[in-house]
Predict the 3D structure of the following.
Amino acid sequence: MNQLLKKFPEEINRILARYPIDRKQAAVMPLLHLAQGEEGFVSRTALQEIAEITGISTTEVASVVGFYTLFHDAPEGKIRLQVCTDVACDLRGATEYLTELCEKLGIKPGETSTDGLITIEEVKCLAACDKAPLFQAQIGDEVDYHENQTPARTIDWLRSMSAALIGTPLKTISLEETKPEEGGSHE
Ligand code: FES
């Protein structure tokens, strides 16, 4: 039994009704969004069930997940922090920013902090090239952008998010204290 269909029959019918009957594959993105909203990532089972619903192969569904930074095929931290280090951002110091931030967090790109709070990822263009260093933060279904960052500013934001999400101080930053920057915007 297709568990996605079983759990969300109305939502899936609504999604499929937006597309011509012979273009069901166009529903892949909203179906992925639905599956990810349920589990926090798109599981192998969800890939197969979406393939079944849309009539395309599991590999084709997986390729959509692999292409978009907003879809994930594994569970990660509560906050996915994605830093663009593409050429334009690199020229504005994005790589140095990411390196320093990772040092402060004690994790490398692609890794999750031991408290399960933060996953940091290196991604390609996020369409805000003149505002680097910047990151895209995904928390559940919410996505927002934080531009013109410094490691200290980002750590400051992570501290506030840590308190809001798990109600405790940011344990990950056990190393040196990073003083919040004065007067800087978080956007
Ligand atoms: S190159 Fe980084 S946002 Fe475009």
Observations:
- The domain at 79-166 is CATH 3.40.30.10 (Glutaredoxin).
- Helices lie at 3-7, 9-17, 28-39, 44-54, 58-67, 87-91, 94-105, 151-166.
- The first strand starts at residue 79 and ends at 84.
- The pocket of FE2/S2 (inorganic) cluster is lined by residues 84, 86, 88-89, 125-129, 132 (CB under 6 Å).
